[in-house]
Amino acid sequence: MSIIVLIPLSAVVWTSMEDGLGGFWHAVTRPEAWSSLKLTIVASLLVAFINLIMGTATAWLLVRDKLPGRAVLDTLIDLPFALPTIVAGLALLSIYGTNSPVGLNLAYARSGVVVALLFVTLPFVVRTVQPVLLELDREMEEAAASLGASPTKIFLRIILPNIVPAMAAGTALAFARAMSEFGSTVLISGNLPFKTQVASVHIFNQLESDNVTGAAAVATVLLLVSLAVLLGLDLLQRWAARRG
Amino acid sequence: MVRTGLRISVLVYLTMLLVLPVGIIFVRTFENGIGPVIDALSTAAAMHAFQITVVVSFYAVLANTLFGVTAAILLVRYRFPGKRILNALIDLPLAVSPVIVGLALVLVYGRTTGTGKALAGIGINIIFSIPGMVMATIFVCIPLVVRAVAPVLEEIGDDQEQAASTLGASTYQTFRRITLPSIRGALAYGIVLALARSLGEYGAIAVVSGRLVGRTQTVTLFVQERYQNFDQQAAYAAALVLVLSAVVALLVSRTLRPKEITR
């Protein structure tokens, strides 16, 4: 564990601080690094939000809707986890690229990056909300309905409060994953600095051009974000457990 | 009304995002019939890439299985200082960018570092060769086996293990005869997940392998390199093989998935 995880990760933080805190700050705020970080954060927030809505809707469809062919859909949801990211990138570029058969060209555009991130983060919210929806006691809803509550009211007052922790956890995971994604964005983004270059790709390019300190600085920022998300999730779980 | 709207929007979303992109890999691969596909996959470079991927995945999965079972037993059966930290650290690789994994390994084991030089002195090269690629793959797969096995260990409790040891079974015997059979399903599930992840790893491998064509090129690197060199047939054919192995892994993992996790 230490040989493979801890020592190497500390080396990243250590290298980023080689020229002191000022050097670190300088490396992170270089225009190219800064714009890649900004794009990554904004795109990840957007992706997390879309996942929150669509993921919850998908989970709902899988659990509560007697849609024919649900089983197939249920298996399909996990595909982005199993599919290599570079293949995901190739697939998206083939359908939403320059020779798009559906007439939608998102190659080398920021929207292409967002679509790639949406693809790889698709299962997170679905898979966290789905089990909670399954466990949810139907009797509460029936009681509310018999007392005259409208479907909207039942959803807002009974279902939503129960699934909110799961929705938040799934969204946080999707955000963390989107922040760190590399493979799927490589092909579709075209890696244009200041336009479509995400932080991971920026790190990769800096490393290729031997700017190790710069790469380590941006990597440290990403590591801090991941750590914050993991910590937040831990707190969220404790909070949800206490709340029962 | 609401239900129809929900159905349509979810189905359209999933079709646009999942079905069409994955479907087009099939279409593009077989655009010119099956002959060119076989030709593209039987070139020396393609064969070598498959070989490297299999070798790296084999060692990475083996190491993860051993580590995963040990860590799961430690986390579930023993109390020790720092347990909560270890527990949190296990999940860290899921949240760390693969590129950072690669960068981290290069910084410690690269040829210009102290460790790297010392190891090179005794004839071991880690970065730009197989050992580094195995390490990178182990890193990204760490949580998979642990998180599959730990809940089952928790669920079965340690009554039987204790009974076995009071009857005089050694630690190894207890593990072999009691623990292992009861975690078999979960372990297989974890191994399939780790294998799927290993076969498809790209980012971390791209950094530590140096992407040396014909030497450290895995299938995922092959897909990218061929695509960017305008050899689309080979890129799509190799990508299709990866898609099919992902689908197989998915179906196998569904049948193996322990009930406790299905919930």
β-sheet strand percentage of chain A: under 5%
What structural class is derived from the secondary structure elements of chain B? Answer: mainly alpha
Spans of chain B of 5+ residues with little confidence (pLDDT < 50)? none
Q: What is the CATH architecture annotation of chain B? A: Orthogonal Bundle
Report the count of strand segments of chain B.
0
Task: Describe the sheet with the most strands of chain B.
Answer: none
CATH topology of chain A: MetI-like fold
Summarize the amount of helix of chain B as a percent range.
over 70%
Number of strands of chain A: 0
Element-level helix/strand string of chain A: HHHHHHHHHHHHH
Q: Rg of chain A to the nearest angstrom?
A: 21 Å
Determine the mean pLDDT of chain B: 88
Strand composition percent of chain B: under 5%
Overview of the structural elements:
The complex is a heterodimer of chains A (244) and B (263). The longest helix of chain A has 33 residues. Chain A has a single domain, classed as Orthogonal Bundle (MetI-like fold), CATH 1.10.3720. In chain A, 80% of the residues lie in helices and 0% in strands. Chain A has 244 residues and is mainly alpha-helical. The radius of gyration of chain A is 21 Å and the shape is globular. Chain A has 13 helices and no strands. With 263 residues, chain B is mainly alpha-helical. Chain B has one domain: MetI-like (MetI-like fold, Orthogonal Bundle), CATH 1.10.3720.10. Chain B has 13 helices and no strands. The longest helix of chain B is centred in the N-terminal third of the chain and has 34 residues. Classes of the chains: A mainly alpha (244), B mainly alpha (263).
